[in-house]
Amino acid sequence: MLNPVPDHRFAASLNISATVQKVVDTLYGRIQSGEYGVDERLPSERMLSSDLGVARNTVREALEVLEKQGLIRRRAGSGSFVNPKSERGTLTQTEVGADTSPLNLQVTRGVLEPELVRLAVMNMSPRQIESLEETLTQLEAVRTDAESFVQLEEDFYRKLAAGTGNPLLASCYDLVIDACRQSFRAAHLRRHLTPARIEDYQRRYNSLFNAIAARDIERSVEFIRIHLIEEQRLLLQDL
Length: 239
Fold this sequence. Notes:
mainly alpha, Arc Repressor Mutant, subunit A, two-stranded antiparallel sheet, elongated, disordered N terminus
């Protein structure tokens, strides 16, 4: 079974399976904690497969992800080795997400999301709104699966960010999503994302979508502000 390590969601934007992502997160957590030191050789694929309870091809794919991101280097016939931080490329973005406190995250969301929604209402094309509705339909079909709900919620926000027509803002919001995936967020969701709250969020997102589709900037921004206030209230209960 996978070891219980912090869910850093390293390289989560890549198109990989959930099982591979868990292996990536586990190995990333071990490297960050110092369990695997700089220039140290990682256990073999066979050993990692046995340790983590997954197939060897899953381990191999996870190692490929870590190598592409500059976290490790692999040598034919020798194995995989941990790179110094200076060689870790996109690790910097993930470290920012990992170092972001819950309250700092909420402050950042409070700054970005109202403007993100305002620009989306102004700039989304009919096709983008149709795609957003497709995601909403999938989100509304979730009943108890918190993980699936969160993934669809992220997709909903990504489409809003893309709909702003501002690639820089969309990239900034990718970092917000990365920070949302940190371990405190996972624990927070386990406590609060109950079936009743999922249903409540579904109603909110439905109202938000209707306001966006109607090109109602004021109502759309107000919906997202109310949603942020509620999320902050729940967060403060945990602190």
